[in-house]
TrEMBL record:
Transmembrane segments: none
Coiled coil feature spans: none
Catalytic activity: 2,5-diamino-6-hydroxy-4-(5-phosphoribosylamino)-pyrimidine + H2O + H(+) = 5-amino-6-(5-phospho-D-ribosylamino)uracil + NH4(+); 5-amino-6-(5-phospho-D-ribitylamino)uracil + NADP(+) = 5-amino-6-(5-phospho-D-ribosylamino)uracil + NADPH + H(+)
Pfam hit, one: dCMP_cyt_deam_1
InterPro entries listed in its UniProt record: APOBEC/CMP_deaminase_Zn-bd, CMP_dCMP_dom, Cytidine_deaminase-like, DHFR-like_dom_sf, Eubact_RibD, RibDG_C, Riboflavin_Biosynth_HTPR
Pathway connected to this protein: Cofactor biosynthesis; riboflavin biosynthesis; 5-amino-6-(D-ribitylamino)uracil from GTP: step 2/4; Cofactor biosynthesis; riboflavin biosynthesis; 5-amino-6-(D-ribitylamino)uracil from GTP: step 3/4
EC numbers for this chain: 3.5.4.26, 1.1.1.193
Required co-factors: Zn(2+)
UniProt KW keywords: Hydrolase, Metal-binding, Multifunctional enzyme, NADP, Oxidoreductase, Riboflavin biosynthesis, Zinc
Domain CMP/dCMP-type deaminase as annotated: residue spans: 20-144
Cofactor binding, note field: Binds 1 zinc ion.
Protein name: Riboflavin biosynthesis protein RibD
UniProt record similarity statement: In the N-terminal section; belongs to the cytidine and deoxycytidylate deaminase family.
Length: 368
């Protein structure tokens, strides 16, 4: 499924000057690596390109989790393997050096006799952390590290945040009216239990695309009670994210969509009475009186969720802003006015993108 001019939020900063040969091939690595977005986690979405005599003879990106890594796919795509002994392989991230679900990529590069390896950036994972580079150099490979390092770091922002900050890459997302409200007064829709749309259909489809790209989505109790959201990707294709629902006192009844068992769901609560739990839903006990965003970050880290979209409500979003536990804010502004209601959060950050989506305005902030 596609949307015309539906801009990606994972684009690479444009290059103002002419690229060197190494930079040109590394940029290609980044471009093809994006094909793994939403499928590779907890593995990084790596891109690899193999060049012989200034010609690309093979390329690949990381398969869905459990499948082959980018280097393996690139090597397997080369029709004449004898060329590998005089080729260069480019990769966005340091080749792995340990056994996981697949053998080490560094070992395969050495086995195939590839003499030169160009790497975007080192892998911060404790099982790699420079060991892949050491293994390649020990085998006699020429290794060049740091080509388009900033661009590769931007591409691998989820993976890097997860392993350096021990929490997911956190994306705040909401829609607000032209007069700055995130929702009307609760009494207006108390009996409806359905969303009150601020944005147009194209913006909503983009939001579903984003959900397919991240492994987790988090909402608060009031959002569920007011909107009864499904938090799925029914307007896109791909894998639905794990739903994380805050429900301190288990006010959400089993007839709400988030408890339908159709996708993995974790309910965070302070109620320990398991007789009140809904079958097929996972429950986690948290202390709602103390550093809740930090507790949630720890929980999501334990669940191996490298990135999470937080879709509301206003109190939940603001709690992550106040705790300085966020990386991006994606804010839709629609043409509607409420005049009164629930005020939208007010984060401070660097604007990295602004665009129009029909009648809506999208602003993306980065918390540097």
């Amino acid at each position: 499924m596609s949307i015309n001019n539906l801009d990606s939020t994972n684009s690479i900063p444009s290059q103002s000057n002419a690229l060197s040969a190494d930079e040109k091939y590394m940029q290609r690595c980044i471009e093809i690596a994006k094909n793994g977005l939403g499928t590779t986690a907890p593995n990084p979405m790596v891109g690899a390109v193999i060049v012989y005599n200034d010609t690309i003879i093979g390329e690949g990106f990381t398969s869905a989790y459990g499948g082959s890594h980018a280097e393996v796919n690139a090597i397997n795509s080369v029709k004449d393997s004898t060329l590998l002994k005089n080729a260069t392989i480019y990769v966005t991230l340091e080749p792995c050096s340990h056994y996981g679900k697949t053998p080490p990529c560094a070992d395969l590069i050495v086995k195939m006799g590839i003499p030169k390896v160009v790497i975007g950036l080192k892998d911060p994972h404790e099982k790699v952390a420079g060991n892949g580079i050491k293994k390649l150099k020990a085998a006699g490979c020429e290794v060049n590290v740091g080509v388009l390092e900033q661009e590769c770091a931007e591409h691998h922002k989820r993976f890097l945040t997860f392993f350096t900050k021990k929490r997911p890459y956190i994306i705040l997302k909401w829609a607000e009216t032209s007069d700055g409200f995130i929702a009307p007064e609760p009494l207006i829709r108390e009996e409806e239990k359905k969303p009150y749309w601020i944005t147009n259909t194209k913006s909503r489809q983009l939001a579903h695309k984003w959900r397919s790209e991240e492994p987790g989505i988090l909402v608060g109790t009031n959002t569920v009670l007011a909107d009864n959201p499904q938090l799925n990707i029914r307007q896109w294709t791909g894998k639905a994210p794990t739903r994380i629902v805050l429900d301190r006192n288990l006010r959400i009844s089993k007839d709400f969509h988030v408890l339908d068992g159709k996708q993995k769901t974790i309910v965070c609560t302070q109620i320990v009475d398991t007789t009140k739990y809904v079958k097929g839903v996972s429950y986690k006990i948290l202390n709602f009186e103390s550093q809740l965003p930090q507790q949630l970050c720890n929980l999501m880290f334990e669940e191996q969720l490298q990135s999470v979209i937080i879709e509301g409500g206003s109190q939940t979003l603001q709690s992550f802003i106040d705790a300085d536990s966020w990386d991006e804010a994606r804010i839709f502004r629609g043409a509607a006015e409420f005049q009164k209601g629930i005020k939208a959060p007010k984060p401070t950050g660097r604007i990295i993108k602004q665009m129009e989506i029909l009648t809506d305005q999208l602003t993306i902030l980065r918390n540097d």
